[in-house]
Amino acid sequence: MKLSFKSITAALAVSGVLATVPLQVQAAEEQFVPLFTYRTGSFAPLGIPWADGKIDYLKLINERDGGVNGVKLAFEECETAYATDRGVECYERLKNAKGGASGFDPQSTGITFAVSDKAPVDKVAIETVGYGLSQSANGSVFKWNFPLLGTYWTAADVMIQDIAKKMGGEDKLKGKKIALVYHDSPYGKEPIPLLKARAEANGFELQLYPVTAPGVEQKSTWLQIRQKRPDYVLLWSAGIMTPTSIREAQSTGYGRDRIYGIWWAGSEGDVKDLGQVAKGYNAITIHNTGESKGRIYEDLKTHLYDKGLESGKDTKGSLAYNRGMVISMLQVEAIRAAQEKFGKGQHMTPEQVRWGFENLDLTEEKLKELGFEEMLRPLKTSCENHMGDDWARIIQWDGNKFTVVSDWYQSDKKYVDPLVKSEAEKYASEKKITPRDCATES
Questions:
Q1: How high is the pLDDT of residue 270?
Q2: Residue 304: helix, strand or coil by DSSP?
Q3: Is the dihedral of CA 374, 380, 381, 386 positive or negative?
Q4: What is each CA distance from 411 to 40, 156, 187, 374, 417, in whole angstroms?
Q5: Which string of b and e fits 61-78 if b means at least 16 CB within 10 Å?
Q6: What is the pLDDT of residues 331-344, one digit of tens each?
Q7: Is 120 exposed, middle or buried (0-12, 13-18, 19+ CB in 10 A)?
Q8: Is pTM beyond 0.85 here?
């Protein structure tokens, strides 16, 4: 029997549809996590271990658990070299890939600024653990941004708290001089509003010293510091700028024990080559030190390291590597939280994952279950609060390793909250955003 042209066409159409079904099912069984990295450029010493930690945790979830409730994690690196234009290119290329991005960790304040205007249109979450727009802690205005665990205002405030404690109380700050040596970029400028508010309230003089990227020319900056003699220096640097600052401090006779580095300037890669030159250097961290211990590392050894599946043999266990793992863990738990609401064992859309970020509840019991109980404090987010709990502590380089030298701090809300409110309101006005009424949202 001869088939008509229409019959053949219809048959081919049906077979074509059937042929695509396995592909669609396969795509639905994966959850895509894009990875912005900078393994090149002046920030590479930080970016490489950070990227390795992020990737190894995603690998662990696939190897140990078979994915999130059976949904395997697909991921892809996109090298930005910390350049904003390259970051935007990565964002545009990956936002709709493989069923939609589960969220972006831009790894750059500049890139975060650029994509924060795009995220509400594209309906994809921006995860900025310890960086980004500090006012984006306000979830009613920043529906798609999640500065989890803390912001640069958290860091600046905790540094001031620790300095005040050393001096014997906040009243002892009056008349003192505190300098900010910062990368002259959106990243470096983020703590300035908080420090200005603190300076006005506490009566200390704030000195500002911008450093042109990449930060290898700092001699004139430290000569000014030697001349003006600030009591303490806060260092907002990353990559090659950090060891350069510490060397210049040594050359001008400025005590390293009076320098506080932001967490991106507080990894082993920043100081290990300096050794005793950096002894006494303080840094702030949003998690415990980089020792390879706890159940998370037992699982990594069993499922990755012993099989030769780790991303970087020389980076595991470092502070930056651990921070990368924390970032991916939060991403995974947002996916898991979304599945609990929208369908366990199913692919989650970017909007559903956003809901997961907004409803994280990492209790002590949950952190222990995940193997992070020795690394983090509990975290809970909400519609109003997209940062969660902002615990931080001070670590110090002893010439060979970083050790914890303070208890856990939290930012002082009487300084931080008014800034978050006013800056979020200003942003909403400029961008013509109508804030959400969180009281009416479940």
A1: 94
A2: coil
A3: negative
A4: 33, 9, 19, 21, 9
A5: bbbebebbeebebbbeeb
A6: 999 999 999 999 99
A7: middle
A8: yes
